[in-house]
Amino acid sequence: MKTNFCRFDGSKKFSYKKFNTGGESEEYDRKKIEKEMQKNINKMKNYQDRFYADGKEAFLVIFQAMDAGGKDGAIKHVMSGIDPQGVRVTSFKKPSVEELSHDYLWRIAKALPKRGEIGILNRSYYEEVLVSKVHELYKFQNLPQRCLTRDIIKQRYEQIADFEKYLWQNGITIVKFMLCISKEEQKRRFIKRIEDSSKNWKLSEQDINERKYWEAYMEAYQKAVNKTSTKYAPWYVVPADKKWYARGFVLQVILNIFEKINPKYPRFSKNKKSKLDDYKKILQSEKK
Length: 288
Description:
Layout: E1 7-8, H1 30-54, E2 58-65, H2 71-78, E3 87-91, H3 97-100, H4 106-109, E4 118-122, H5 131-135, H6 152-169, E5 172-180, H7 183-195, H8 205-210, H9 214-228, E6 235-239, H10 243-261, H11 270-285
Parallel strand pairs: 2-4, 2-5, 3-4, 5-6
Antiparallel strand pairs: 1-6
Helix pairs in contact: 1-10, 2-10
């Protein structure tokens, strides 16, 4: 499955007005992609087992999207079958009183994966240059006046890029997904949530009200992608109008990264190997 056309690493610019949220037309074979997904899940199980055993670096996966963009479903399907011991999923909602008393990266730092672990962030520090930018929420944060300048969002782009560079330089591989759906597709999914009683809980009045800011959000996403796309922390803007396409796309990107990392099981020295042989003899000599 092709993925590079949606990769942004600073070498090209993202334009939401030119982006096709439906994906590549030649890859609309759902059965083929879902069959490929199952093969890729099995491959990823093996890579994740080796990654966990190797324990040399961590893997941070960030998901951002508009409401009903498909983050939860993508995480659930892409990570299905993987050993939960090596995966940590953290969902970020409206900051708590305690979180607001710290800098905006504080709550993120606590959720970073340890070596050998995959850390998945369902929303992230990017909310500070998305929802906070659109609604100017930073004006209500308890910050000293010197911080509340007209450059505050520009500074946060720089802070985020610096933070991601710091993570990369300290052994954390980073990939960021923006699941991009059309306004019409969001409307369709909202109506489906209304018509399906088992999904009513997923919809709120705020979800409906936020649609009025669609263009402002798209511009905020475009700016965030273009300001923070780097080779060490690339963005993948995922065509997400078709959930199965988006899930197959995300899985393929993650698998590609694992193949590049190519983790290995730890290798024992000759001395340790000989000890293993000794352990085997001891176990075999035990009386039944």
